[in-house]
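Case study: M23 family metallopeptidase.
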Amino acid sequence: MNGGNDGGRRLAQAVQSAAKILRAYLSGNLIGAAFEAVKHFCPQIFTVIALIVFLPFFLFLSLPAYLLSFSTLPYADQQSTDQKAGYVEEYCAQYDDLLDEALNDLKEEIEDDENADEIHMQYENTRMNSTWVSAIYCALYENDLSHMSEDNYKRFLRQTFSYQIKKTESSSGGGTVVPLENDFVLEGGSSGHTEVTIIISYYTPEQLMENLRFPDQQRMWAELMHTALQGNSSTGGEPISENVAQYGTLIHQYAELYGIPAFESVIRAVMMQESGGRGGDPMQCSECPYNEKYPDGITDPEYSIEIGIKYLASCLRGAGCTSPEDTQSLSLALQGYNFGGGYINWALENYGGYSQENAAEFSKLKQEELGVSGYGDPQYVLHVLRYYTPAGKLEWPVPGFTKLTSQWGDGREHKGIDIGGAGINGQPIVAAADGTVSTAVHSGWGGGYGLCVYIDHADGLQSRYAHCSRVIVNVGDTVVKGQVIAYVGSTGDSSGPHCHFEIRQDGIPQNPMDFYN
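Here is what the predicted structure looks like once written out:
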């Protein structure tokens, strides 16, 4: 009862005080009204003032922690992921260099441990996309980006591949090569010439997440970050590396020789999947029946390209594929390239052609037959075709990014389209088609285009790429469709990172979107 009486008295006093303040204010005595307000409501007034003054300050201090950490969220949503993608993209841009450093570190460690005269690196497949690696790295730490540093990222890259060591020793006469794992001792002792080959096998995103034992929530975080870094779904293939592009002349030469000139883009896609254009066997065809020169593994890139194309041509014939537009028979030939020719006949006899299901079945049958834990890549077709754009169709200039921040025309006679989106800064720009570089601005204003590239294609077609951060081709260079030519930036007359993309026919600007579905 006393508590209720005290509350009633306080309420009555507050009403009386408010009445005094109101009377003083209405009579024009502002100083008196202020005095009464301070006298009766001092704690409340100071509380309100403190909230007004200090609340924005505390919100400002907490903003970086919010932006750089997902850990406060039970589930990451796409909007918050997009905000953080910009922080991660600089590591995407360093991915290739840091991975090369990690591989060199591995090589040096093995050199220290092994007494060998020569050490070679061999790659069984192509490295993972940089955006996937970065996305999985973030998800590993539950998207708490405070763990993101160059040293931590580089250490993580050692988990994105596995490796095997193959040692051989040759006799002093140069004729005998003996695998050292057989514990065979050459008569008369060691010749002193030992070779070590480090066989690198890169993981796919799914394999890496499986190795890291990702639960569903971490997989979701990885997928959201990958989406934020990539932008929307790609309308074209993934970029062809400079290492693959450098073999354009040889690919053309042997494609003509073995009767498959229409399949040059397919050949480049196969090489991207097999090796990324690295090593002495870029087509990874050492076990091919046509390899009669290097029984212990091909070490000559030109010979690898010749044998790989010859074997692919035989797979295409076996699959009855006469055009790269025939997706079904092309898929059968590609899977045959990976599994071996026996698959093509088996698939035709049992199923009438290729399917993902029968590829998985064939792989399992071979595992049981040979007593091995794995056989080939049952998803090889999908892995190759991500690098392939059918002949006659233009490659999308910024793979993975389809958001148009400015349309053709756009009310201001805009002569192209602007491709933007979260995380696009520093991403690779690729050639829309085969051609010759006619303009390459590496520094300066570029007439408002900033750093830019013009490529002349067949039949009077020209493509232009503007506002780049870096241009990596030169005037006179021959480029192939999908080859990286520059990186997205905001140079010249630009208000933010994007790629201004133009198509001109006989010098007349065309709507680039007319060239895409």
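For the exam, be able to explain this: Residues 63-79, 173-190, 231-236 have pLDDT under 50 and may be disordered.
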